[in-house]
Design brief:
alpha+beta, two-stranded antiparallel sheet, binds iron/sulfur cluster, four-stranded mixed β-sheet, single chain, elongated, Alpha-Beta Plaits
Length: about 140
């Protein structure tokens, strides 16, 4: 690149709007198809465990509380998740989605990365029976 061209680019850039923002003080809206943290709907779940079997990162466990009554709890190991969306493809009942709001997931400890999803009563029973994650999210 010629010096003159480079100089005109540098001078011209002073009057252009910056392409970047001052994150975290300024934020742009995340795209709606962003692959953020998993969200799970226990009401639609049949407990087939396809999501868990197909997950290449071993990031999902489905715990059965009562199969007949369709009571399940999902344990999500977020620190293992590669956000590939295979679980969403595999679930035939559209129980799993990826949040476009929860994507700033950095933390200084592993605790927030172990998440248990489910109905309040199912989580309480699962917590009593199994060593579940501390971070629980009810529907
Ligand atoms: S997004 Fe991929 S890695 Fe994450 S839980 Fe689903 S299948 Fe596993
Ligand atoms: S694939 Fe869907 S229905 Fe089957 S256990 Fe996973 S979330 Fe439930």
């Amino acid at each position: 690149m010629k010096i003159a061209t480079m100089f005109s680019d540098v001078v011209g850039s002073f009057w252009k709007k910056p392409a970047t923002v001052q994150y975290p003080f300024e934020r742009v809206e995340a795209p709606t198809r962003l692959r953020g943290k998993l969200e799970w709907d226990p009401e639609k779940c049949t407990g087939c465990s396809l999501c868990s079997k197909d997950c290449p990162a071993d990031a999902i466990e489905i715990i059965t509380i009562d199969k007949k009554a369709k009571r399940f709890v999902m344990q999500y190991h977020m620190d293992r998740c590669t956000y590939c969306a295979q679980c969403i493809e595999s679930c035939r009942f559209s129980c799993i989605e990826m949040s476009d709001e929860q994507w700033e997931l950095a933390a200084t400890s592993k605790v927030p990365f172990e998440v248990s999803y489910g109905r309040e009563e199912d989580l309480a029973e699962a917590l009593a029976k199994f060593a579940l994650a501390d971070t629980v999210e009810t529907e």
